[in-house]
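DM from R.C. (forwarded with permission)

"hey, sorry to bug you on a friday — could you get me a structure for this? deadline for the figure draft is monday and I only need the backbone to look sensible"
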Amino acid sequence: MPLRAALCLAACLPVLAACSGVPEVAARESLTAQAAPWPHLAPLPALLASADAPSQARSAEAELAARAARLRARAAGLRQAGG
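My reply, with the result:
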């Protein structure tokens, strides 16, 4: 009998959840968001072409590595100055 009651409860819960009211989304939206323009949609082939550009990734990786080296050197200098 407990299994039957559990199955009945499991079947009734989604029905009860479907009866709940959905909150009004427009009421939560700020005036700034309402006045904002629609985002620019880019064509998919152009996005896929830019995603396949490994040279840009290598360039960005080199820039990040150089920045990390500069930050490490700056941190070492601050540690020495702080004594």
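R.C.: lifesaver. The two ends are 75 Å apart (CA to CA).
me: no worries. The chain has five helices and no strands.
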